[in-house]
């Protein structure tokens, strides 16, 4: 049924148009929050559809946005762009106990294009994590301790490597974003805490031992 003059469907913007809008917008970019459909839609494989200058500008904006948040990873859908691209970078843990228990060394800046991961074995570890697109909350998430990462970097070079510890957690978290999966989908829901006050104190422990005891979920 016609809706009258001016009711024609407006074509959805192309990915290139979305990228241009984001690049022309605020810097750092706005990070979309849970409830936005782009976070629940598998991202499109990136096959070089952007010119080199635009692609470089997008990666630079993603890195600045990640730093400003601050975070240790950012996937393109988190700024509204449905492309299978993520950036990661982590200064590592300053607390020696956290460094040891969580296996959280510094992770140099890198770009992941069309990343995929597969477990190396069945070993999982459970720690608190949060997400820039689910602000205000943290929860315990069981993740594979070691994964095989495949995909490409920003130059198109093929990636095929094993990552472990906290870097493996970051890879899994960001790659999940590109499949439309949020960390809360994998979380131990009873562990959910706010990222301030008592919740922040519980989540800051090297392992979620106290949280498991006082909140009543199985210890890691």
Automatic annotation (TrEMBL):
Its cofactor is Fe(2+). Fe cation binds at residues 131, 173, 177. GO terms for molecular function: metal ion binding; peptide deformylase activity. The active site is at residue 174. It catalyses: N-terminal N-formyl-L-methionyl-[peptide] + H2O = N-terminal L-methionyl-[peptide] + formate. Keywords: Hydrolase, Iron, Metal-binding, Protein biosynthesis. InterPro entries: Peptide_deformylase, Peptide_deformylase_sf. Transmembrane segments: none annotated. It holds the Pfam family Pep_deformylase. Its EC number is 3.5.1.88. Binds 1 Fe(2+) ion. GO terms for biological process: translation. The keyword Hydrolase applies. Removes the formyl group from the N-terminal Met of newly synthesized proteins. Requires at least a dipeptide for an efficient rate of reaction. N-terminal L-methionine is a prerequisite for activity but the enzyme has broad specificity at other positions. Belongs to the polypeptide deformylase family. PANTHER family: PEPTIDE DEFORMYLASE (PTHR10458), PEPTIDE DEFORMYLASE, MITOCHONDRIAL (PTHR10458:SF2). This is Peptide deformylase. It comes from Cellulomonas aerilata. The lineage of its organism: Bacteria, Bacillati, Actinomycetota, Actinomycetes, Micrococcales.
């Amino acid at each position: 049924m016609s809706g009258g003059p001016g009711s024609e469907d407006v074509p959805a913007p192309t990915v290139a148009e979305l990228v241009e809008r984001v690049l022309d917008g605020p810097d750092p970019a706005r990070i979309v929050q849970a409830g936005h459909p782009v976070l629940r839609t598998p991202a499109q494989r990136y096959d070089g559809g952007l010119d080199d200058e635009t692609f470089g500008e997008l990666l630079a904006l993603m890195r600045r946005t990640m730093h400003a948040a601050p975070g240790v990873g950012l996937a393109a859908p988190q700024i509204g762009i449905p492309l299978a691209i993520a950036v990661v970078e982590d200064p590592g843990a300053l607390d020696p106990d956290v460094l040891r228990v969580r296996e959280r060394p510094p992770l140099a800046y890198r770009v992941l294009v069309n990343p995929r991961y597969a477990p190396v074995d069945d070993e999982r570890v459970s720690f608190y994590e949060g997400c820039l697109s689910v602000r205000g909350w943290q929860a315990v998430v069981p993740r594979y301790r070691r994964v095989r990462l495949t995909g490409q970097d920003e130059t198109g070079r093929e990636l095929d490597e094993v990552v472990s510890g906290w870097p493996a957690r970051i890879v899994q978290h960001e790659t999940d974003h590109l499949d439309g999966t949020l960390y809360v989908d994998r979380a131990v829901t009873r562990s959910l805490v706010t990222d301030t006050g008592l919740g922040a104190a519980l989540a800051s422990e090297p392992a979620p031992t106290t949280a498991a005891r006082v909140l009543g979920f199985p210890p890691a």
